[in-house]
Amino acid sequence: MSNTSPSPLHRLRRLKAALLAVSFTLAGVLLMMLNAWLSPLQLGDWQWLHALPLGELGGTLFGAGLLSTFFEYTFRRDQEAHTLARFRQIIREEAPAMRDAVVEGFAIHPEDLKRVATPELLDDIAANVMALRLGDEQFAREIYRDIRDQAVRAAERWYDVAVRVRLSTAVERSTAGTPLFDVTVEWEYTTVPSSATRRFACVSDQDEYNELRQDVPATSTWFMAPRPGMDARHREAYELLELTVDGRPQPIRRSTRATGQTYSVDLDEDARSGKPVRIRQVFRTITPQWSHRLYFAVAQPTRGWSLRLDYTDTTIAEVHVSDTMATTPASTIVHSPEAVPGKEITVETSNWLLPQSGVAFTWATNDELPQTKQPEAVASSREG
User: Fold this and answer.
1) 170 FRET partner, CA 20 to 30 A, in 91, 135, 317, 338?
2) Cβ distance 352 to 302 under 8 Å?
3) pLDDT tens digits for 37-84?
């Protein structure tokens, strides 16, 4: 028998039973008293009242009241204990079937699980499921924690992302002693904006860069180390050219400071309606030719990624591609045909990508190649 106190409903039922027993007893006493009072009387026209079995009825009610009170306080506890034991036995016998029904119901109808589960409970369930599948609880929980932090807590999800990058030789701006490439980057993607303002920053301070990177996706940050001809504060070094939402240009504001500059864009009301919109943003920057590397990564969970690098107007002889996209099947890398005058590389995947997944391009220019490996000799040896 449980040591917990009876519920209010249970106490109410006991009170009603006690009142009923007292009522029966009192009614029986009253009927017997009435019968005793009527017996010696001459009632005349009401003589038929003597024919009523008031005494027997009163005795019956009196006995029923006493017996019900006796059973209530004598046998009810044993009855409750038996009922509880029987209930527990049924629960034990039916627990596997009930468990299977609940699990199957939640598996087929996740909205039912959503109604009854807290985020913490869902995290525990997901981690336990992964532990069962992987056979390693620690590994499963750490893997799930990484996925949760990158995907579940992401502010936005991006779809059908198209990135177009164009490299060209910056002839006029390479006179300061640092040979430069102009880099024009265009991002286009579909999402539901999580904030009303988009910011694009170019900074030369590493600590500030690391801090701004935490403000994704509201802030897109480009790091530019101070070098001759490269000043993060100048438009010539970095400039947001355009941002459109479903083809509508958005106004751009620019501010500068000692360590760089920031472009701010306040999205219009249609962009803040909570519905998916197509965002297109174009910026240009510069990079040293001898840096030999450009890296582009997604800032939010992304489904469908296409990146095209055009380096036709450069002295680049070789380009190597490496990606950090752990997808199955692997991403596809396509080089433009040798017979085509332009030089392009396209990297594509249709799968989901987690934040910080991306592609790195590394290159070697014509004058950096050995004499035995000049452009004519390497024209057909570009690798991905």
Assistant:
1) 338
2) yes
3) 766 666 666 666 656 666 677 777 767 776 676 666 666 666 777 778
